[in-house]
Every structure is written in C-alpha cells, then in structure tokens.
Amino acid sequence: MLSLKELLHFLSLSEPNIRYVVFGTIMVGIAAAVIGNFTFLRKRALVGDAIAHAVLPGICLAFMLQGSRSLWVLLPGAFVSGWLALLSIDWINRNSRLKPDAAIGLVLSVFFGTGVLLLTYIQQSGDGSQSGLKHFLFGQAAAILPGDLWVFGLTGLLLCGLVALFFKEFTLLSFDPDFAQAAGLPVRRLELLLSTLTVLAVVTGIQTVGVVLMAALLITPAAAARFWTDRLGAMVLLGAAFAALASVLGSFVSYQQPNMPTGPWIIVVLSAIAFFSMVFAPRRGGLARLWDKLRHAWKIREENVLKTIYHSGESLGDFTAGMHIEAVQGRRAFNPWQLRLSLFTLQRRGLLQYGASGYRLSGEGLREGARLARIHRLWELYLTEYLRLAPDHVHDDAEAMEHLITPELEAQLEAALGYPERDPHDRDIPR
Predict the structure, then answer these.
(1) pLDDT category, 315, cuts 50, 70, 90?
(2) Which of 48, 173, 212, 276 has the most CB atoms less than 10 A away?
C-alpha cells in the first residue's frame, strides 16, 4: 500500500542510493526524450529499436577485451556496435531491394542474436567479474553508482546542448528534408549528426531500462507529448518532463517494492502517460476527437432540420406556416428523439418559434435556412458545370459540402459561377 511517509522519505532523497537512482534515471530519461522527438517525427522509431538491440554485442566485446563492467569501458563498445548497426541498415537500404522495415529487422536480429551468444559465452566462462552483465538486457537502475552519474550527466549535457545548437536545422530536417536540401543545408551531415546523437542516447540509457526497452524510453515521451502541442519546442520540453516524471515514479515503485525492477516500471509509467494523453489530451485526444465528431454530427442534424422546414415553407410559398414534428419527420427521416432535441435547441437559439401550428422559422431562422439552401444549390451548379456531373447525381455531394463551406469559400464559389439565380433543377438560388 502507498504510504505518505514512505513517499516523503523517498522525495527527500536522504539516502545516497535513492539519489543515484533518481538523478540517474532522470538524466537518462530527459536525454532520450529530447533526441527521441526528432526520431519520432522522422518516423525512425524502428531504427531506434534496432540500435538499442544492436548495442549488446558491443557491450560484450568491450567486456571481453577489458574485463571490466565500468560504463567508461562498456559504453564505447556499445556506441561502436550501435553505429555499425546504423551503417548496416543504411547500406542495405541503398544497395539492395529490401524494404526499410526488412533491413531494420534483419540488422536487429543479427546483432541481437550475436549479442546473446556472446553474453552466454561470457556467463559460461566462469569469469567472476561478469556478474550483473546480463542486467543490460532489461536494465538495473539500482546498480547506478556515483561514477555513472558523471557519464549520464556529461552525455545528457552534450545531447541537449547539440540539440539546442542545431534545433532549427534538426526541425527542418524532420519536417521537410527536401526543402532543407534545396536551402543549401548539409542534409547528409545533419542526418549523420542526428543519428550519432540517437545512438549516444540509446547507449547511455541501456543500464537504466536495458536494450529491450530502450526504444520505448526513446519514443514514448515524444508520442505522448505530440498529443498536447503542435509546437516542436513545447513538444521537446513536454516530452522531457514526461520522462522525468516517469523516472521519479518508476524509481519510487522500485523503492517501495525492492523486487520490482526500476526500468520496466519507468516504461509502464510512460505508457500510462501516453495512454492518458491519447485519451484525454484537449485537442488530439480520443475524447476531444469524439466530442468534435459528435458536435459536427449534431450541427449537421440541426442544419438539416432547419433546411427541411425552410424547404416546406418554400414549397408552400409561405414561410410563416408551421410544421409539427410528424410533418418534419414525413419530409425527411430523422431519429425521433434526436429530432425533438434538435427542434428544442433550434428554438433556444432563436431560429425556430413554436405555436399552435407547430414550429416555424423566425427571422434569423429564415435567413439561416436560405443560406443553407443557397450553398447547396450553388454547389450543385458547380458540380454540373465544372465537373460535368448529371443534375440527378449531385445532391448527395452537395448535401455533404453545404455544412463545411466557409463564408469566404461561398463568396468565391458564387463569383466563379457568375452570381447565378437558378440551380440545375431550375430552383431559385436565395440571395
């Protein structure tokens, strides 16, 4: 059970081991999240996963050569191995007919398989110094030492500093590499630098979450942040904040339950943040999109009800005549309870008035109904004159477009048609 006392004790960072784990995971998470935004925007998530798995043979070879588990020894080997994997993917893409995803899968499986073989050989060699080397598969944040913090800190500062220095160039490269090439930027060198930083971020984080989960630490913060903002600067900061929060919460779960590994819990928390963002983000979240969809459908239904009453008055030549619900339903099929609610809403908005003869258009409702009929008929005329569609084939398309056309587009449409007075069915186009 969650204890407030334990939480306060954890947040006080009074124990050295807690400080090492929290600060180490935060630094690794922020560095991965910052560079991961560009990996995410360039749609290179699978490349990050391949690099994360490909560093394992480099770690094993570095240990076999030096016989030390120090990060200063293992990380250079991991970096070289990750770089070779990246070059291999690029070479296969350029010199074979394999698709990019196949090249990534091939390199990932070969490098990771080689790493597992080397790791098995080391474990069976009887070398006592290899103890704990297998934790690089899934990470062991609890084993972070003060010397490791220096590695994480310096690497994080280098990554963030280079991203800040080349932020404009990386942004252009991520969104429009063709324009960057045309603008004279050294695209190939920038891609090389960005790939190098990605490899460096992956290599730095493997002790925290391991080679298996490193791609999630790289991509998930950016994916979660993308739901909240359209600005890349805000996205980078928000992704870093999500990574830092997940690092703290994941470390706390591991602190409270020592048998729970820190790295996987950091990924679980990040996944929860991403899921929350996917559902509840104000503009891009699932609920917001569902609300927009329902609101748009409701707007279309109200406009169709108003247009139905307008057409009835138009056919009678009397817009003051009322319509009961049954008459509206007879002219156009509506869901009964949705029709009642639409009529009530239109009445509250002042577009309809209710009396003994039923619902009739108010002055404002008459103008709105005429506008809808006008757009519908203008669009029908456009489809027949410019797209050469038969008049009896344009109603459905005009029905869909009349709810989307803005006043500016309406004015342009009318001007393009020469301010017509009759539609293809010889009906008046309201002015």
Answers:
(1) confident
(2) 48
